Amino acid sequence: MRIIFGKERFNQDRAVIWHSSRVYNGHMLVLGASGTGKTHLLRKAVNQMVETSGDFVGIFVLDVHGDLEFSDSISSTAIFSESGRAGINPLKVSSDRQFGGVRKKIRSFVSAINRTSRKLGIKQENVLIHLLEDLYAANGFYIDDPQTWSLDYDPRKSRFSKKYPTMEDLKKFSEYKLKQMVTGAGSKAMKKLDELNRKFTLLEKYRKKLLKKGSLDETEISKIENKIEDLKEETKRLYSEYIDSIETGRELDDYIKYDSEDVLKSVLRYIESLYQSGIFKGKEPDFGDKPVRRYLINSLNPDEQKLFVDFLLEEIFFKAKEEGIKDRIDRIIVLDEAHMFFSDEPEHIVNIISKEGRKFGIALVMASQSLSHFSDDVLSNTATKIILGVDEVNHEKLSRKLRINKQSLRFIEPRKTALIQIKNHANLNNKYVNTVLTI
Fold first, then answer.
1. Is the same domain home to 203 and 180?
2. Which structural domain, as residue segments, surrounds residue 170?
3. What global pTM score does this model have?
4. What is the per-residue pLDDT across 17-43, written as a single tens digit (0 to 9) for each?
5. Are 379 and 405 in contact (CB under 8 A)?
């Protein structure tokens, strides 16, 4: 693949060209304030990639604003919204032993939720983790048994085909657990256990009172001692009733795991709101054989966009990794407003792709108005950087972080010129070329 950005400003005989086979990785950062031409450059760059790709290249465009449109001859669009027909499944498990598995999927799912503005409380987080563990186990995916992480091996010997659980399954499973806690199997044992715990608390309260004998008269001491004896008999009775009411043997485990009816209710409400967003229900989109797959997510709120990007990028990465190491780029992810989707967590999928994606044929094209949230690791792992123009207020920070001569930033003419750095295998220096754009 090839992109011709333009010609060197001070040497018009030399073109500034990006070659997919020459750059030491395909990652690209396009940086510019609003109105400097980021969207125009992205469209032109994608068109040139498609024109020069030869073999099929899958280009995944995450369209945050709805303005990254391409010709119908090369692209297909899936609209994601509350009323849309397309959805993705965030609960797919990768069988990869290094990056995949049930535990890592659960952790990434919970972490993605906690990167939104609706962070879970500690109790809610623990309940959600237990719900997911039990849901995966019910579907034949066991945390400590890697061979079960694949759809090809089902330890349950079920007459139904093994499948990945979905958000709808998680919602129904949570509803079942809540009903079980309130009125269903095991509720009688749990109510007895709750009552037993309250009596033990009361018993402990009277015992502490009895330790303060010096401040009590004999009548008060006698009353407390009698109350303690009564409570002892009552707890014995309740314990016996609790034992008799056990039906499955798992009641105590569920009681410990799911904490309380109120906590489980709050988690269920959260799961329902995720499901109702629309992005996790419906069929996954069919893009046919079009090389550009446009995911239109402009109608989603910022939290939903973050979740969508996290889960889609995980799916793209794991599929590429399962295919093995490659010597060419065959998947390009175009991420507009990329700074919104980064995290400091080392195991966040965007950080993983920036470090590991190259060897599995993935290139990450990031467009942003700001360097905020881009770590030094991400910047150092990005071979191509394009500066389209930034406000003078940011010149100091930009020159320091990207090691650009501050004076050269002043000579950028938005939509006409740009500073471009392309690090090739044969040349890893930090040179930025002032380029007259033709793209």
1. no
2. 102-185+263-276
3. 0.79
4. 999 999 989 999 999 988 899 999 999
5. no
